[in-house]
Amino acid sequence: MSTAFTKTLAPLPPGRYGFWGIVRSEWTKLRSVRSTLWTLFITVFIGVGLGAIVTSARASRFSSRSVAAQLTFDPTRSSLSGLLFAQLAIGVLGVLVVSAEYSTGTIRDSFAAVPRRSWLLAAKVAVFATITLVIGEVVSFSSFLIGQQILSGKTPTASLSDPSALRAIFGGGLYLFALGLIALGLATIIRHTPTAISAFVGILLILPILASVLPSSYADDIGRFLPADIGTVMISAHREGNGAFNPWVGFALLCGYAVTLLIVGGVLLVRRDA
After folding, report:
1. Residue from 206, 209, 196, 240 nearest 95 by CA
2. Which residues contact 6 (CB under 8 A, 6 or more apart)?
Protein backbone atom coordinates (compact mmCIF):
# COMPACT_ATOMS: atom_id res chain seq x y z
CA MET A 1 0.00 0.00 0.00
CA SER A 2 2.81 2.39 0.91
CA THR A 3 4.44 1.51 -2.40
CA ALA A 4 1.28 2.37 -4.32
CA PHE A 5 0.90 5.65 -2.41
CA THR A 6 4.50 6.57 -3.15
CA LYS A 7 4.00 5.98 -6.84
CA THR A 8 1.12 8.46 -6.92
CA LEU A 9 3.33 11.31 -5.72
CA ALA A 10 4.89 13.47 -8.40
CA PRO A 11 8.69 13.74 -8.07
CA LEU A 12 9.94 17.06 -6.73
CA PRO A 13 11.64 19.21 -9.35
CA PRO A 14 15.37 19.58 -8.85
CA GLY A 15 16.47 22.86 -7.31
CA ARG A 16 17.81 25.26 -9.92
CA TYR A 17 19.11 28.77 -9.66
CA GLY A 18 21.01 31.02 -11.98
CA PHE A 19 23.38 33.87 -11.29
CA TRP A 20 20.88 36.55 -12.32
CA GLY A 21 18.34 35.03 -9.97
CA ILE A 22 20.83 35.45 -7.15
CA VAL A 23 21.47 39.04 -8.25
CA ARG A 24 17.73 39.77 -8.11
CA SER A 25 17.59 38.23 -4.65
CA GLU A 26 20.50 40.37 -3.43
CA TRP A 27 18.90 43.47 -4.91
CA THR A 28 15.68 42.67 -3.04
CA LYS A 29 17.58 42.17 0.21
CA LEU A 30 19.60 45.36 -0.18
CA ARG A 31 16.72 47.69 -1.03
CA SER A 32 14.39 46.22 1.60
CA VAL A 33 16.78 46.93 4.49
CA ARG A 34 16.12 50.31 6.08
CA SER A 35 19.77 50.91 6.97
CA THR A 36 20.66 50.79 3.26
CA LEU A 37 18.27 53.59 2.37
CA TRP A 38 19.40 55.69 5.33
CA THR A 39 23.08 55.19 4.51
CA LEU A 40 22.52 56.16 0.88
CA PHE A 41 20.59 59.24 1.99
CA ILE A 42 23.41 60.20 4.36
CA THR A 43 25.95 59.70 1.56
CA VAL A 44 24.05 62.09 -0.70
CA PHE A 45 23.38 64.59 2.09
CA ILE A 46 26.98 64.66 3.28
CA GLY A 47 28.50 64.63 -0.18
CA VAL A 48 26.35 67.45 -1.53
CA GLY A 49 25.49 69.36 1.66
CA LEU A 50 28.90 69.50 3.29
CA GLY A 51 30.48 70.16 -0.08
CA ALA A 52 28.24 73.21 -0.47
CA ILE A 53 29.12 74.43 3.04
CA VAL A 54 32.87 74.06 2.47
CA THR A 55 32.63 75.71 -0.94
CA SER A 56 30.64 78.62 0.48
CA ALA A 57 33.24 79.15 3.21
CA ARG A 58 36.07 79.16 0.69
CA ALA A 59 34.21 81.58 -1.58
CA SER A 60 33.64 84.04 1.26
CA ARG A 61 37.35 84.05 2.14
CA PHE A 62 38.73 84.04 -1.39
CA SER A 63 39.41 87.78 -1.62
CA SER A 64 41.48 87.71 1.59
CA ARG A 65 43.76 84.91 0.38
CA SER A 66 47.23 85.51 -0.99
CA VAL A 67 47.77 86.03 -4.70
CA ALA A 68 49.56 82.68 -4.95
CA ALA A 69 46.61 80.91 -3.29
CA GLN A 70 44.15 82.62 -5.62
CA LEU A 71 46.14 81.60 -8.67
CA THR A 72 46.28 77.95 -7.59
CA PHE A 73 42.63 77.79 -6.50
CA ASP A 74 40.88 74.71 -7.91
CA PRO A 75 37.12 75.38 -8.18
CA THR A 76 36.41 71.79 -9.19
CA ARG A 77 38.15 70.30 -6.19
CA SER A 78 36.47 72.83 -3.90
CA SER A 79 32.98 71.88 -5.07
CA LEU A 80 33.76 68.16 -4.73
CA SER A 81 35.21 68.42 -1.22
CA GLY A 82 32.08 66.85 0.28
CA LEU A 83 33.06 63.53 -1.31
CA LEU A 84 35.88 63.24 1.21
CA PHE A 85 33.19 63.09 3.91
CA ALA A 86 30.77 60.92 1.94
CA GLN A 87 33.48 58.27 1.62
CA LEU A 88 32.89 57.27 5.24
CA ALA A 89 29.17 56.69 4.68
CA ILE A 90 29.72 54.64 1.54
CA GLY A 91 32.33 52.59 3.40
CA VAL A 92 29.87 51.82 6.20
CA LEU A 93 27.32 50.65 3.64
CA GLY A 94 29.91 48.42 1.98
CA VAL A 95 30.65 46.80 5.33
CA LEU A 96 26.97 46.30 6.19
CA VAL A 97 26.21 44.57 2.89
CA VAL A 98 28.12 41.55 4.20
CA SER A 99 28.57 41.90 7.95
CA ALA A 100 24.90 42.62 8.71
CA GLU A 101 23.98 39.09 7.63
CA TYR A 102 26.61 37.63 9.91
CA SER A 103 25.38 39.78 12.82
CA THR A 104 21.78 38.61 12.42
CA GLY A 105 22.60 35.03 11.48
CA THR A 106 20.74 35.28 8.17
CA ILE A 107 23.96 34.42 6.35
CA ARG A 108 23.13 30.76 7.08
CA ASP A 109 19.88 31.11 5.17
CA SER A 110 21.74 32.75 2.30
CA PHE A 111 24.24 29.88 2.18
CA ALA A 112 21.43 27.34 2.33
CA ALA A 113 19.67 29.03 -0.59
CA VAL A 114 22.91 29.52 -2.56
CA PRO A 115 25.39 26.73 -1.75
CA ARG A 116 27.84 28.15 -4.28
CA ARG A 117 29.20 30.83 -2.01
CA SER A 118 31.39 32.40 -4.68
CA TRP A 119 28.23 33.13 -6.68
CA LEU A 120 26.64 34.72 -3.63
CA LEU A 121 29.60 37.04 -3.12
CA ALA A 122 29.75 37.87 -6.83
CA ALA A 123 26.06 38.80 -6.77
CA LYS A 124 26.56 41.03 -3.73
CA VAL A 125 29.47 42.74 -5.46
CA ALA A 126 27.49 43.22 -8.69
CA VAL A 127 24.49 44.79 -6.93
CA PHE A 128 26.49 46.94 -4.56
CA ALA A 129 28.95 48.09 -7.25
CA THR A 130 26.08 49.20 -9.50
CA ILE A 131 24.35 51.14 -6.71
CA THR A 132 27.58 52.73 -5.53
CA LEU A 133 28.63 53.78 -9.01
CA VAL A 134 25.26 55.41 -9.73
CA ILE A 135 25.04 57.16 -6.34
CA GLY A 136 28.69 58.23 -6.51
CA GLU A 137 28.28 59.88 -9.90
CA VAL A 138 24.99 61.53 -8.89
CA VAL A 139 26.62 62.99 -5.78
CA SER A 140 29.70 64.07 -7.72
CA PHE A 141 27.83 65.83 -10.53
CA SER A 142 25.33 67.41 -8.12
CA SER A 143 28.12 68.69 -5.87
CA PHE A 144 29.95 70.20 -8.82
CA LEU A 145 26.93 71.99 -10.27
CA ILE A 146 25.81 73.37 -6.90
CA GLY A 147 29.36 74.31 -5.97
CA GLN A 148 29.93 76.27 -9.16
CA GLN A 149 26.75 78.23 -8.55
CA ILE A 150 28.05 79.13 -5.08
CA LEU A 151 31.45 80.17 -6.45
CA SER A 152 30.05 82.16 -9.36
CA GLY A 153 30.93 85.84 -9.11
CA LYS A 154 33.24 85.31 -6.12
CA THR A 155 36.01 83.07 -7.42
CA PRO A 156 37.10 81.49 -10.70
CA THR A 157 34.71 78.74 -11.78
CA ALA A 158 34.86 75.61 -13.91
CA SER A 159 32.42 74.08 -16.38
CA LEU A 160 31.53 70.67 -17.75
CA SER A 161 33.14 71.65 -21.04
CA ASP A 162 36.54 71.66 -19.33
CA PRO A 163 38.05 68.16 -19.87
CA SER A 164 40.03 68.33 -16.61
CA ALA A 165 36.93 69.27 -14.62
CA LEU A 166 34.84 66.56 -16.27
CA ARG A 167 37.53 63.98 -15.54
CA ALA A 168 37.62 65.06 -11.88
CA ILE A 169 33.82 64.84 -11.59
CA PHE A 170 33.73 61.33 -13.02
CA GLY A 171 36.74 60.53 -10.83
CA GLY A 172 34.83 61.54 -7.72
CA GLY A 173 32.10 58.99 -8.41
CA LEU A 174 34.65 56.32 -9.29
CA TYR A 175 36.52 57.03 -6.06
CA LEU A 176 33.41 56.33 -3.97
CA PHE A 177 32.74 53.24 -6.08
CA ALA A 178 36.22 51.82 -5.42
CA LEU A 179 36.13 52.65 -1.70
CA GLY A 180 32.78 50.90 -1.33
CA LEU A 181 34.23 47.72 -2.82
CA ILE A 182 37.28 47.97 -0.56
CA ALA A 183 34.94 48.18 2.44
CA LEU A 184 32.92 45.21 1.18
CA GLY A 185 36.12 43.19 0.78
CA LEU A 186 37.21 44.04 4.32
CA ALA A 187 33.80 42.98 5.66
CA THR A 188 33.99 39.66 3.80
CA ILE A 189 37.33 38.94 5.44
CA ILE A 190 36.56 40.24 8.95
CA ARG A 191 32.77 39.56 9.13
CA HIS A 192 32.38 41.63 12.32
CA THR A 193 30.75 45.04 11.69
CA PRO A 194 32.56 47.28 14.23
CA THR A 195 35.94 45.71 13.46
CA ALA A 196 35.49 46.01 9.70
CA ILE A 197 34.39 49.65 9.99
CA SER A 198 37.36 50.37 12.25
CA ALA A 199 39.72 48.79 9.72
CA PHE A 200 38.19 50.87 6.92
CA VAL A 201 38.48 54.10 8.92
CA GLY A 202 42.04 53.19 9.86
CA ILE A 203 43.04 52.73 6.23
CA LEU A 204 41.27 55.91 5.19
CA LEU A 205 42.14 58.29 8.03
CA ILE A 206 44.74 56.84 10.39
CA LEU A 207 47.34 55.68 7.85
CA PRO A 208 47.70 59.19 6.32
CA ILE A 209 48.33 60.60 9.81
CA LEU A 210 50.98 57.96 10.51
CA ALA A 211 52.59 58.58 7.12
CA SER A 212 52.70 62.34 7.73
CA VAL A 213 54.99 61.99 10.75
CA LEU A 214 57.64 60.22 8.69
CA PRO A 215 60.46 62.12 6.96
CA SER A 216 59.12 63.94 3.91
CA SER A 217 60.82 61.63 1.42
CA TYR A 218 59.20 58.56 2.97
CA ALA A 219 55.88 60.34 3.56
CA ASP A 220 55.54 61.23 -0.13
CA ASP A 221 56.52 57.76 -1.32
CA ILE A 222 54.06 56.06 1.02
CA GLY A 223 51.31 58.68 0.83
CA ARG A 224 50.73 58.34 -2.90
CA PHE A 225 49.69 54.71 -2.36
CA LEU A 226 47.07 55.59 0.27
CA PRO A 227 43.38 55.77 -0.75
CA ALA A 228 42.86 59.23 0.79
CA ASP A 229 45.71 60.76 -1.21
CA ILE A 230 44.58 59.01 -4.37
CA GLY A 231 41.07 60.37 -3.83
CA THR A 232 42.38 63.93 -3.48
CA VAL A 233 44.14 63.60 -6.82
CA MET A 234 41.08 62.07 -8.49
CA ILE A 235 38.78 64.98 -7.56
CA SER A 236 41.34 67.65 -8.50
CA ALA A 237 41.33 69.31 -11.91
CA HIS A 238 44.80 70.71 -11.31
CA ARG A 239 47.77 68.37 -11.28
CA GLU A 240 48.88 67.38 -7.79
CA GLY A 241 52.57 67.49 -6.91
CA ASN A 242 54.72 65.45 -4.52
CA GLY A 243 55.04 62.57 -6.96
CA ALA A 244 51.34 61.70 -6.82
CA PHE A 245 50.06 59.10 -9.25
CA ASN A 246 48.12 60.09 -12.34
CA PRO A 247 44.35 59.99 -11.48
CA TRP A 248 43.70 56.96 -13.67
CA VAL A 249 46.73 55.13 -12.32
CA GLY A 250 45.49 55.89 -8.82
CA PHE A 251 42.02 54.58 -9.67
CA ALA A 252 43.54 51.39 -11.08
CA LEU A 253 45.48 51.00 -7.84
CA LEU A 254 42.29 51.38 -5.79
CA CYS A 255 40.61 48.76 -7.96
CA GLY A 256 43.59 46.50 -7.37
CA TYR A 257 43.16 46.89 -3.61
CA ALA A 258 39.46 46.09 -3.91
CA VAL A 259 39.98 43.03 -6.12
CA THR A 260 42.69 41.68 -3.82
CA LEU A 261 40.50 42.04 -0.73
CA LEU A 262 37.51 40.48 -2.50
CA ILE A 263 39.56 37.52 -3.70
CA VAL A 264 40.93 36.90 -0.20
CA GLY A 265 37.44 37.35 1.22
CA GLY A 266 35.97 34.98 -1.37
CA VAL A 267 38.50 32.26 -0.54
CA LEU A 268 37.75 32.62 3.19
CA LEU A 269 34.02 32.69 2.51
CA VAL A 270 34.22 29.30 0.81
CA ARG A 271 36.50 27.71 3.42
CA ARG A 272 35.07 29.03 6.68
CA ASP A 273 31.89 28.05 8.52
CA ALA A 274 28.99 30.48 8.59
Report:
1. 196
2. none
